[in-house]
Amino acid sequence: MIQIEYPGPLLNKLVRHAAFWLFMVIFYTLPAVFNQDAIGFRILNNLLYVPLNMVAVYFSLYYLLPKVMFRKQFVISAIIYLVTISLLAIAAKLLKEYVYVFLPMPASGPTPLSSEIFSSLLTLNMMVGMAIGTKLLMFWFSMQIKSKEMEHEKTQSELVHLRSQLNPHFLFNTLNNIDTLVLQYPERASETLIKLSDILRYCIYETSEDQVPLEKELEYLQNYIDLQKIRLNQPDFVRVKLSGISAGKKIAPMLLIPLVENAFKHGDRKVATPGISIFIEIADHQLKIVVENSIKQVRLYEIEKVGGIGLKNVRRRLELQYPDRHILEIEKHHEKFRIQLIIDLYEN
User: Fold this and answer.
1) Which of these, 113, 304, 317, 346, could form a disulfide with 285 (CB 3.0-4.6 Å)?
2) pLDDT per residue over 19-65, tens digit each?
């Protein structure tokens, strides 16, 4: 379905549709106003046929238009449209002959059947054309605005990544841990350096595209978790469970890391292990990640701002890059904080 960002007064769907049909009634009443010919009758006549016109307009907007734009079903859509419009034109004639005949109407000579059917077809086609034209015009303007907004957001996101995604404290702590490991456990120190190198390489060189392989993003996430385990010196503090196949799928880069960073930043290390649980499930083209961590009671008042720029940035990026294709839930319950994100990775 076509998604459009409307200005303030038009956010209400009922207001938009009411305004459109009011405009159509006025538009088709104008000839009678200029000719000073039975204005009241013309208004009543136009109002009576609004339901029939609605069928033509909404059927075309919400059923046929998506078929043409997204499924490229031009021929079958054209046939369905012609049949529908023809049936509605006949219905308009039947209404005039057997229903609206009981209403007071001005005296006029008989009109040939073909002329009445043609007039109904012309009116219906004009209304459908104006409705679709308005929809497409609004969609075009909306896409222009969203495109500029996404370009600006991408620039700001890159700056945020450079400032906050590579947390200096995390980097310095990791280097200090490596320094200790070099003397006591050289093999572990080498492994840690490799993971840190992979993290830096991914952040600097592999996140410039709008989409990256999901495998790379999950590998980066795992490297980050492994280094945090070394920093905390509590291997069992974090539980990670991954299910599903990530091969062949893509995701916006560094979208998941703020969820995990948030858990390490606000997690209570004094609770029984695991203090942090991370579940990642991949099914078809859907990714689900759940991050849970224990928090201190004294920090519960801070939950509204947990994550700071990180979670706000995630929300905004999801709105721009996965509109109507994601569910983000953030919950707090006693001493538990839970984030669940579901993303539809499928691209039309």
Assistant:
1) 346
2) 888 888 888 888 766 666 667 777 877 788 888 889 999 999 888 88
Q: Where do runs of H (alpha helix) occur along the chain?
A: 13-35, 39-48, 50-59, 65-70, 74-98, 113-160, 168-184, 186-205, 214-232, 257-266, 309-321
**274 preceded by a cis bond (ω within 30 of 0):** yes
Same domain, yes or no, for 234 and 318? Answer: yes
**In whole angstroms, what is the distance from residue 242 CA to residue 251 CA?**
16
Query: Helix, strand or coil for residue 334?
Result: coil
Of 120, 147, 174, the position where a domain reaches its end is 147
How does DSSP classify residue 166? S
Beta bridge partners of 286: 283, 344
The pTM of this model reads: 0.53
Instruction: Judge whether 306 and 266 are in contact, CB under 8 Å.
Output: yes
How is residue 236 annotated by DSSP? G
Which string of DSSP letters, residue by residue, matches 82-118? HHHHHHHHHHHHHHHHHTGGGS---------HHHHHH
Average pLDDT of the segment spanning 279-291: 94
225 SS3 class: helix
- Nearest 5°: the CA angle 238, 215, 323 is 95
How high is the pLDDT of residue 279?
A: 96
CATH number reported for the structural domain that contains residue 222 in this entry: 3.30.565.10
d(CA 41, CA 47): 10
- φ, ψ of residue 77 to 5 degrees: the values are -65, -40
